[in-house]
């Protein structure tokens, strides 16, 4: 993890303290907000000192044999209390850190994981598996667990972070679950290989976290979801190790991997996985297509998604998203299109995609940029601006949160036939929530992924909040929009996971027989009910 | 099902009586075998009359409310006793039909399914869901169930065979589980759409069967497995209906669909599904590449699989397969390559693929054939011959089975790094089994699917059997080869399913925690243990 070790991780906000939005960058950001929301109260609030927080002393100690892995350091414990959602950051800023693990335990070997699970099962201590801690759904927060469990342990997996084996012929690598994104790519690069999985959290999330939460990558089509990049997984459950074989494909019963993918730490602890790799792309081509009409833009995007062209990037920004995050004023949005290949130039595919766009009134004022090299081209135009802002977004979110803004996202997926209707309904619900809260705000939408049968719309909420009520205000907006998602039978999460925050709507989404089946699996694999209680499945009664 | 309604289905063998291999076709087939295996005893055996079989009378009656759906006709019952594996056909020919369902029940509505499940649960009657009955793994055979259950019912789903809804925008259709392949394609064709899922059993298998067994389609890459073509499913379980939402993608917990995919009728009865469709391809290009060296051919195939070119067909026939089923003598095999697209010509992709082949010594004596039309070109060369023989293969299998031959397949998948080693080991194990049985035979291999990390090798066994021992002889070969698969950690089935025949090796393949989880799910969804007992999970004790 060369890129982050020299920096200091923030206990309360995103990423590194050193990379926070400050100075002129912050001033420019706030000026943009002032233009958009002239009435917003943008007074800035600083985080409290950790030492000033009211945090109960640890109620438990690790057994002697595990003592060398355990930390009861206050900052360590507090930094493992919340994920990195807006409501986490805001609560941190306000010093509302109510549920702090008693201990943080960092296993170094698989046997350590087995031993911790054994102890936790025997002692009835709740265990919250923790990767990079970038959850935005309360997935790593031991919310309310102190009432039910005599102890709560955060199992931080980041000391198990090695690439153990590379199979060049099959293009696969065996990687430990605690490895961060940059460490994985740094380790693979000398071999000309890449996992090519780039979620927005890439720098601050781990392989194990991606697997446990079914992370979506940066790329728009085909092999981008972590689900499809897994060849086999090894999971330590309280009743033993579950390892699947390295298989490119199998039809032998329901997929074991698919049961652990998305299990969010409730069924076992993922220790390592064989991951499918790709050659590093050599040819790249990109373009930003401007539309005057959003419906026409949606239709063009749909046709490309259904064309079998498989673009690497096919991100439709609606007019609000285009102006906010790509600085491009349009009446119908911008489609950020890109193709990549390690085997051949992709200009042909780009031409076909652009023809589709032209048929729907799309224009390409900045032209097409193609490169043939390992070197990434300097990106220009809306696509380039949007990309740099993509990486800065979480830092900007924190700066805005400090300035009393409500800045958060919803993400979902739905079929093409109802996407415009859904977007309208989400907009209306958010606007109506703003109104009833007496605040002003805007809603933006981009498609993060496109499938032949529908896109994954990702909504951004930017509203001027009231400092002492921002959590409640956000919760009210969240409730209003989530109800719309359920009403339209759009998933409550496309790639952010369920965690604790999405439970009420997830429970409506899943069928009762499947819920029963999941509870039965949980009881079979985690009979003491100690693994991440409250996520996906209700915790055992006090 | 226009193509099959006018014909008579065979009770003992594959497909339609009218399409059996007879006359000069049979004579030519046997002559080819005589060349290959001059010592084989090819005397022909005819099936018994159904009326002459010793079949116990039905032990149960359907309740009055379900009487109109139930059949106790002898031929009907016998035709639902076995699947269509070699060992099923041989046992039928010999009159060894030991486990016959008491009744065949054909629900017409979902309520009928609910009612049958209720009755079966209340009465403790075993229920075997049945689609086209093309299982080659004993998946629909009520083997030994009469000893444990007071009655055994075959639930034949083929009266629920309608396309209920088409969403053109999202390119998806809601289809009932009992629809056969041709009926689905006939219904979609007027809309310019296709499910594009063509397993070898296409004409005689159903959507529900494909879903329950995780069928593999004909195509080599990307969207071909039924798993990836499902948008949502509706499954009736004994504890209620489980329906997933129509979602292009979701990260909300472990996938419900993936639990029912591959559940082989043990957790519920699939009644319908929203399936992802595709535009009908317009541009096609195909070529047959000849190799002198098999290792070089494997390497070329691997590079194409890893190129991101996504060929529709990428089927490497080894020298034995090439001569037997494509009539092409080679020392290194034939790679049957094809590209298809609804959006653009694929000559460019074909050129890149052929360059890869040339780098490994591949030649294309018959040239490349490209077409631009809805009309399928007349296929020539090895590709064309192989394709027609693909469709006739199961009928030929039956003709050879009648002539005392042992003709059966193994299919698996493994990573690229060990595929040649695995093929050698399978060949050696089969040859050694032939020798210890005192028979002669050959083993062929083709790749049915290729993934970036490995192929799905499909082995054909052709050996001269001894008529009164062919089942035992086959079982011995099966045992020897399956042990090799497990030893190499190659899946016991890539797309044929587990059924009853693959259980011993499946049990070694799956981890114990996953087995526990599956048993727990089964107990939760099918508390009476009536659904397809013995498949995937042990039946309840007598």
Structural description of this entry:
Two copies of one chain form a homodimer. With 542 residues, chain A is an alpha+beta fold. The first copy, chain A, has two domains: 255 residues, Uridine Diphospho-n-acetylenolpyruvylglucosamine Reductase, domain 3 (2-Layer Sandwich); 205 residues, 3-Layer(aba) Sandwich (Vanillyl-alcohol Oxidase, Chain A, domain 3). Chain A is 34% helix and 19% strand. Chain A contains 17 helices and 18 strands. In chain A, the strands form five sheets. Chain A has a five-stranded antiparallel β-sheet. Chain A has a four-stranded mixed β-sheet with strand order 1-2-4-3, with helices on one face. In chain A, a hairpin with a 2-residue loop joins strand 8 and strand 9. In chain A, helix 14 runs antiparallel to helix 15. Chain A starts with a helix and ends in a 17-residue tail after the last helix. At the A-B interface, strand 8, strand 9, helix 9, strand 11 and strand 18 of A face strand 8, strand 9, helix 8, strand 11 and strand 18 of B.
Features:
homodimer, alpha+beta, Uridine Diphospho-n-acetylenolpyruvylglucosamine Reductase, domain 3, Vanillyl-alcohol Oxidase, Chain A, domain 3, 2 domains, 5-stranded antiparallel sheet, 4-stranded mixed sheet, 17 helices
């Amino acid at each position: 993890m060369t890129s982050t070790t020299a920096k200091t991780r923030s206990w309360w906000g995103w990423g590194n303290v050193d990379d926070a939005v400050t100075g002129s960058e912050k001033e420019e950001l706030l000026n943009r907000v002032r233009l958009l929301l002239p009435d917003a109260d943008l007074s800035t609030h600083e985080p409290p000192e950790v030492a000033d927080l009211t945090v109960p002393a640890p109620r438990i100690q690790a057994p002697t044999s595990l003592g060398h892995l355990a930390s009861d350091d206050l900052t360590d414990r507090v930094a493992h209390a919340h994920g990195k959602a807006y409501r986490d950051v805001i609560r941190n800023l306000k010093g509302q850190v109510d549920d702090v693990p008693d201990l943080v335990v960092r296993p170094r070997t698989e046997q350590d994981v087995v031993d911790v699970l054994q102890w936790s099962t025997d002692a009835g201590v709740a265990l919250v598996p923790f990767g990079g801690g970038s959850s935005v759904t309360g997935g790593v927060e031991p919310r309310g667990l102190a009432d039910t469990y005599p102890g709560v342990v955060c199992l931080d997996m980041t000391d198990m972070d090695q690439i153990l084996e590379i199979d060049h012929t099959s293009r696969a690598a065996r990687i430990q679950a605690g490895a961060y994104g940059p460490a994985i790519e740094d380790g693979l690069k000398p071999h000309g290989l890449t996992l090519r999985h780039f979620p927005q959290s890439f720098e601050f999330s781990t392989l194990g976290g991606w697997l446990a939460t079914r992370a979506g990558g940066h790329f728009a089509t085909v092999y981008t979801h972590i689900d499809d990049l897994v060849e086999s997984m090894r999971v330590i459950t309280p009743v033993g190790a579950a390892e699947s074989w390295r298989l490119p494909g199998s039809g032998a019963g329901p997929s074991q991997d698919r049961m652990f993918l998305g299990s969010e730490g409730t069924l076992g602890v993922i220790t390592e996985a064989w991951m499918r790799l790709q050659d590093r792309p050599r040819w790249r081509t990109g373009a930003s297509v401007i539309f005057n009409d959003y419906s026409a833009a949606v239709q063009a995007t749909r046709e490309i998604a259904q064309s079998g062209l498989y673009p690497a990037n096919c991100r439709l920004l609606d007019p609000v998203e285009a102006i906010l995050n790509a600085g491009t004023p349009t009446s119908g949005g911008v489609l950020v299109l890109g193709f990549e290949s390690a085997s051949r130039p992709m200009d042909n595919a780009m031409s076909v995609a652009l023809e589709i766009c032209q048929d729907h009134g799309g224009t390409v004022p900045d032209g097409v940029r193609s490169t043939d090299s390992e070197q990434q081209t300097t990106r220009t135009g809306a696509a380039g601006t949007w990309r740099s802002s993509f990486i800065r977004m979480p830092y900007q979110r924190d700066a805005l949160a400090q300035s009393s803004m409500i800045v958060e996202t919803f993400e979902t997926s739905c079929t093409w036939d109802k996407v415009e209707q859904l977007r309208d309904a989400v907009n209306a619900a958010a606007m109506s929530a703003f109104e009833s809260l007496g605040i002003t705000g805007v809603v933006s939408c981009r498609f993060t992924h496109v499938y032949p049968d529908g896109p994954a719309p990702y909504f951004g909420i930017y509203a001027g909040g009231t400092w002492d009520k921002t959590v409640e205000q956000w919760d009210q907006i969240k409730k209003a929009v989530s109800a719309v998602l359920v009403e339209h039978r759009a998933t409550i999460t496309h790639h952010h996971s369920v965690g604790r925050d999405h439970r009420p709507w997830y429970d409506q989404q899943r069928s009762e027989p499947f819920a029963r089946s999941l509870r039965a699996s949980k009881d079979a694999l985690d009979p003491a009910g100690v693994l991440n209680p409250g996520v996906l499945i209700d915790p055992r009664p006090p």
